[in-house]
Protein 1
Amino acid sequence: MPEEVRSGGEKAQNEWLFQQAAVWPDMVRGGPPDKRAFNRSEWHYINLPLFLNDAAKAELEGKLTANVVTDVPADATTETARMNVVQAIRFARRECANPAASPESRAVLLAWLFHTVGDIHQPLHGTAMFSPRLFPEGDRGGNSVRVQQSGNLHSLWDQFPGADDSFRATRNRAIAYIENPPVVEPAKSAKSMLDEQMWAIESQQIAEAAVYDVEVRPALSRMEASGGPIEPIKLSEAYLKAGGTISEARLVEAGYRLGAVLKELVKK
């Protein structure tokens, strides 16, 4: 805990702990084995399919192996790794409300709940692009799409809210977000929709309309048709500005929805 937080009193310390819990599922991706034991890589996303074009859809539809099931497996436990983000959120919500679950299990799943509600609102955590030549197994949520800004499409959309993840910087950004009425008012309405599957569908629709827009999809179509390698796509300032605006709105929606989910848990 940073000294500025430690000396800031209980409120600041609780905020910091909340932040740390929310990023903990990313922190356990690496490190020693006892840390990596908590990693569940597939819990971060669902690959609802988008197809590069009609020909790709005709060739690949019905042949995909991506897990798009939304019901929680009957044998799900905190050690289950084969769940997508919708299943993981539903499992976490159920177990956090289960008085028979151990405190340790509920603590782990509460951190996952904090994290995955945010993840599912990032459009590229809800979908993947498929095409016969470039992406027969999907583009890994944009990770395989190279762009001149931020290396790949997924990283770009991850970084739209800002690269500084320090306590003070993230707190200041959150305050700025909730003081922006054009963003906050729609988010307040969004908190009435607490179906995780619909959150994923929203992200898929945003990805189709805004992520793989008229700059990305045509470029990928040319690469698909040419037989050449995946070349970095240069995105316009207009694209980057629109992406930042969309990301801010999705973050605030995720925050209000997480708050509503937590209030439900407290009542139980």
Note: The domain at 3-267 is CATH 1.10.575.10 (P1 Nuclease).
Protein 2
Amino acid sequence: MYMINPIMKFIFSFFIIFYFLFIPSEAKIINNLIIEGNDRISPQTIKVFSGFNEGNNINENDLNEIVKELYKTNFFKEVSVVIKNDNLIISVLENPIIQEVLIEGVKKKSFKKDIYDSLTLKNKSSYVEFIAKTDLLKVKNSLRVSGFYLSNVNTSIKENNNNTIDLIYDIFLGEKALIKKIKFIVLLVFFLIDVFTSDK
């Protein structure tokens, strides 16, 4: 029986792995770029975000890159990309637009403005759930830093008729913790006392 040389076996295996890992999958030429599911964002804008157009070569790696680039815009809640009959079909579900961020439970205008300025999602931003969660943590931490250790913050969403939402922060401040008196202890005094008493 003919035995395969171990070195030849290793070289053969190496080339097989190299082929599947580093040689791109077969590319196709895109005849049409079709955009589905968009409402506010124009097809041309989505084409620009995707980085591809009619006549381009595209493979599986490119499809993954398109999805990643579209998600990076924060405009879309869902994105899917497929090639069908030499057509590149991009289907999207847009994130809603925030018509207004409402901060309830805070009367002082300057304090309310400080909270609003600390947010990433503001009026006219696309609502992105994970960014909203990050903003909520920012508000809670900001209140604690300001001395409202017993504060509580909840968020809610109000859907509007024009396909937008209002993002509402319902804040219960509670009592502010105040430091009434601060005592400064000078270590030098204790050192001198210790020196004088030790000499006796």
Note: The CA atoms of residues 73 and 196 lie 71 Å apart.
Protein 3
Amino acid sequence: MEDTIGWGILGLGNIARSFARDLRLVKGGKLVAAASRNLEKAHAFQSEFPSEFAFGSYEELLRCEAVDVVYIATPHTSHAALSIQAMEHGKHVLCEKPMGVNAAEVEAMTACARKNGVFLMEALWSRFNPSILKVKELVESGAIGELKYLHATFGFYALDRDPTGRLLNPALAGGSLLDIGIYPAFLAYLMLGNPDRVLSSAITRENGVDLQTGMIFEYPESQALLFSGLSARTEMRAELAGTKGNLYLEPRWHETNAYTLVKDGTRTTVDLPTVGKGYSHEIEEVHQCLQAGAPESSRWSLKNSLDLIRLLDTVREQQKLKFPFEE
């Protein structure tokens, strides 16, 4: 691996823009190519985020020898196919969450990464957020005793959005669960592991996508109460309650810049600002893994991604949330 890692971006929407801004802040990497199915859009992106190449097809980027690792920022339904295509071209891949829309896709992606000997990671950027890292460390050290209760939500109003767009369109794996419900589910999994039982309830739209979903993850001696929704805005302050104290991830918790510890009658808030918006931290993880020759991240492994999508699959099965392309 060269000292400077060359990045290519597939899919040039708002998330790609945030990622490209943060890539500028990370040493050891540079944007060398951007691709859209619309060449004019690729050139517009290139003018905003300078790169050596701008392509009007994804295949052209995947054949570009200057690209070491591909960031896939397309809608959910193309994550698996494009990741596999990239890995078959020998490219390392950072794929936006959810890595696949179901466990079968994630299993296929994992098998492809191993077959081709390339790096693959789900771009679950919250896993590398400084405050979330610190809160996990505090929980594991017993700072709040035994963790008994976790509460996390992710909700905003989106019913005025384009019904053909990715949030509300079942053909694009729309709905709250895969787009934002993955975050509360991730936090419970990160802090408590795989639950013994999953309980869920969903309110769906006429076209079958979930507008809001409530989940309870049950553990032997603790519970996680989780929610995602596109019908109303939630505070998005996550709470972790233990036998000796409480921890809070301040709003918006999935991209937070601070956490609060409440213990022995004392409340202490610690600021841990992200670098840029926060995508920088997952980029650094990719760089470290590639420089070390690691096939996957030890902090967010392929097994972790598979565990998480299986939890979301369980919720979808319970609520009969099936997408048209899965029929």
Note: DSSP finds nine helices and 14 strands in the chain.
